[in-house]
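Can't paste images in this forum, so I'm doing it all in text. The chain is below; anyone willing to post the predicted structure tokens underneath?
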Amino acid sequence: MNLFFLAANSILPLFLIILLGFIMMRTEVVRPGWVDILNKYALWIGLPSLIFVALVRLNFRFGDYGTLILFNSGYLICCILLAFPVSLVFKTSQITKRTLFLLLGFGNISYLGIPLLSSALGEEAMGSAILLSAVYPFWMFTLAIGFIEVTGHEKIHILLIIKRLLTNPLLISVFIGVIVSWLKIPVPATLIKTLDLFAQSVTAVVLFSLGIFLGAQQIGTRKEWLPVLGLSLLILIILPGIFYFAAKGSGMSTVQFRSSVLDAAMPMGLTAYAMTEQYELNALLTGRLVILSTALSAIILPLWIVFTS
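Text version of the structure:
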């Protein structure tokens, strides 16, 4: 029990920031429009700065992370494919089936995952956290979006998918940071200090933005939340549990293994929500899943921290 409270205490500040954003949205101190502004700052400036600086300081070697990339990629592919049997068993609509390609695997890896892994596991988890923040969007913008387009009325936009990958700030910053670290290219100290200032601000910004988003969502009826609860338990407990036993003994280091399991147990992410809106999918279900899974993760994530310790 003491270990649980220690784990909960390590991530409590993160959820207090989310709660502050939620309260300020509910009391109308801030407006929903803040979310777009804060997210753009985080996506284009804050997180890329954090990723680049962390990778530059990391003695990066490809051989150290091959197993992590392989197992997490396999996990994500299985989660995406799981949408087919789940939609068949529960006889979902075609729109919900297409939405499941995004709901079953893509948690809040960057906005919540990076600060949580750093807080709970220490700075040595940053390498794993950053690489996973590249692995997840890669499979989202390729396989998941590909299935959404194949199963819908849209044509497959190969060039658009490639463009999303090449212009994604997180992927770009990971690529540049890995190259600079791997080749040991010197970076001016002034530039590092400047990027550090942005990096230090991004955790509070993204979590506060998440709180505002949660505070702006509709409540709905109790009956409407039952499938949301089922999906929340699936993505927070069942799927990460399967990954835990599948990846145990995989050869990953302890920090890589724990980082992978915790990222697999992250609540629903805002990027996946944005994709459901763009493709006119079940955005209401996704928005509610963000709310409930984030709330439940305040208890479930400390349990995973304890369980993997």
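The domain at 2-307 is CATH 1.20.1530.20 (Na+/H+ antiporter like fold). The chain has a mean pLDDT of 88.
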